Task: structure prediction
Amino acid sequence: MRRLQVYTSLWAMQPHDPTGINLPYDQVCEMVAKAGFDGMAIDLGASDVAVAHAVRPHMEANNLTPLIVAFPKTIESLEDTLHMAADFGAPFVDVIGQVMPIVLDEMVPVIEAWIAMADRIGVPVQFETHRNCITNDLYTTLQLLDRIPDMRICADLSHYVVDREFWYPLSDHDKGLISRVLQRSDSFQGRVASRQQIQLQLDFPQNQKWVALFRDWWREGLADWRARNRTGDCIFACELGPPEYAMTGPDGVEMSNRWEEAQIIMRWVRDIWDDLGGDDPETDTTPF
Result:
């Protein structure tokens, strides 16, 4: 069976809206499940292992699958997270590696060591396209992908739009670079950025060109994933971060409702998936 699974993030739910109120974990998990999300990412950079264990029973009570996001500061420290992810039943560990050599030849052994560790423990790893980590730069990440055939990506393209300060409209060259990332991506994250802002409001008129760009990329990524996978779960995480990711006015209040926007993105992605053929591989008509 091949299916789309849409997650949100515990980090994105604290606070979950412009009121700034942090809800208890039982209410968070109930909200997420009732809204139709399949799982929730637990970000060990924004929280810690104690939080992961505290929220776990509430996720299980609401049939939410956990996804572990790791920020390992040493090669060895990822091992404990992989064992925890196996115990939690996470589909993979999303690695935002804080081991950051400057030279490409020194980066390759780091990635290869983490992949080998994941293979030994039996929990897959994906490397998120993210700033301030080993995949910080788009060009370097593309070189890593060329050097390491087994390296798989969790595509959060918002970081590269900001990092590279892509002009709009993007050139065919720049579009091609992003396509190379998508062709190695096994999961995706939902956030819309511009060349100066990491997280845009979805309904502001001036942001619509960027919204359209990201929706096109999500379609491209999902179509490519379907072409490569006849079975399995395609995971898309709606990750709209709280301030200072979310822009605020002079009163400190967020300029949009991220909880509502996360559900909008979920609907968009489910519609794209259904348009590409839906969950049933027997009726897949994906053109590629």
About this structure: The first helix runs from residue 25 to 35. The first strand starts at residue 2 and ends at 9. Strands lie at 2-9, 39-43, 65-70, 93-95, 125-128, 153-155, 185-190, 232-238. The chain has one domain: 2-280.
